[in-house]
Amino acid sequence: MLVVILICIIAVALYIKFRYSRVALYKFAETWPTYGDLPILGHTHWFIGGPERIFNNIRTLMDAINAEGKTVSSVWIGPSLYMVSFNPDDVQKILETCLEKDYSYKFLQTWLGNGLFVAPIDLWKVHRRLMLPIFHNRIIEDYIEVFGEQGNVLVERLQEQVGKPSFDVYEYITSCMLDIVFETSMGKKMDVQHNPDTPYLRARKTVMSIINMRLFKAWLQPDVLFNLTSHATVQKENIDATHKFTDEVIRDKIADFDEENYKEGRKDILQLLLERKLAFSNIELREHIDSITIAGNDTTALVISYVLLLLGEHQDVQEEVYKELKMIFGDSQRRPTKEDITKMDYLDRVIRETMRLYTVVPIIGRKTQKELKLSTCTVPAGVGCVVVPMVLHRSKKLWGPDADSFNPDRFLPENSTDRHPCAYIPFSYGTRNCIGRYFGMLAMKSILANILRSYKVTSQAFDRLKIEILLFPVNGHQITLEKRL
Ligand code: HEM
């Protein structure tokens, strides 16, 4: 009994000491409006539950904060203070000046090391500058051939679903995107579309699901607690397996590397990195290549799948897209070229509107490195800044009373002139935005053009969503296919 009392006294004393050391932060947070917090817990209870409940809670909490008309609000998750803003001027300032990622990205860092996505700011500055020329439009356009080739395989595979009941198209699309990112980033023809269940792909999925679980389970976040669970061992084994795979590809590439051989033709990203003799170690190469294959795959596959869901629901829009494709291709089944893709204006608007309504990267977390002056307050250094594109994209203040409806013509040039640059940020904004956005747009247009020339899509209304790092529909991307004549 005495021992228990002693432990309680020590715990209370430690808690008081901890609170005392952060008095300045608490005092400061009190000056911000807040909503839905509890004593001691703060907002932690909003982030407990399954992925659907967490999505609904985040939506409710953020909508309430946004509706209150407060430009800046505080959110406490456990002991961490976050500042949320829905004022596009503040969002612009945060994304332009706070380039350091939030603490929550550290769970990805165990896997992706100092790859571009999670790299600490000093290293990121150097590496982003070195990588930018490799993501130049001219180089990315060389990959259009791969997009067309893999898109054709996808169309062939989808044939098995024609006339059948609804099925989850995401599984097909993500395999196609994996083939694309593996071939373009490391020159590896994996043929995931025909072999979707390899040990490497299983290891990737396992790591993703453990990281996602950790993100939303507060008690698994401290390393000391996580390392006591079996998840830590499983995560380590699977991370090691994915690292081994990429390390081997890099070793083989270096062994075969002969500058003379690489003079002509299309080059994958790894070749380009080697050829330029950039000062990357083998580990850094692996971290960058892994980051690219992870950041570029599910995001793009999800957007394509959401486009198919929305077009299945909005047949008039689908017919408009089909008409545009007919005008570009006639009856030809040829692979889309750069010129073809440039002409897909309506499809472009459909994709943009889809990314507005279903923002696959729903939340972005940054950290202030020094004091940051926003519209209504000055945020001290070391505070997490949360930008929530999925809420900004449906804000009635920014998009009008029909913000929730699907209308690709919002993105007509004449309807976009007065829009704030941070009202629409599916690829984030500022210098730490998505380096693969041109790659993603070209791949999405090419693949959608291939599918929609061959098949007519139908789908049913879907409204249940969940957050598993990215935004997924709870029941999958269920569509049915009919062959076009
Ligand atoms: C529809 C497709 C895509 C969407 C919606 C998307 C979205 C985003 C967003 C929002 C970020 C910033 C995340 C943050 O700050 O937390 C980001 C970063 C990044 N994306 Fe994408 N992305 C897409 C496709 C791609 C593709 C195809 C690639 C590579 C081929 C790629 C590679 C990256 C990388 C490497 C970063 C980190 C950039 C940095 O920190 O400098 N993404 N992406």
Automatic annotation (TrEMBL):
GO terms for cellular component: endoplasmic reticulum membrane. Transmembrane segments: none annotated. It is a peripheral membrane protein. Keywords: Endoplasmic reticulum, Heme, Iron, Membrane, Metal-binding, Microsome, Monooxygenase, Oxidoreductase. Heme binds at residue 434. InterPro entries: Cyt_P450, Cyt_P450_CS, Cyt_P450_E_grp-I, Cyt_P450_sf, Cytochrome_P450_Monoox. Its cofactor is heme. It is found in: Endoplasmic reticulum membrane; Microsome membrane. One of its GO terms (molecular function) is iron ion binding. It comes from the Eukaryota. Belongs to the cytochrome P450 family. May be involved in the metabolism of insect hormones and in the breakdown of synthetic insecticides. PANTHER family: CYTOCHROME P450 4C3-RELATED, CYTOCHROME P450 FAMILY 4. This is Cytochrome. It comes from Spodoptera littoralis (Egyptian cotton leafworm).
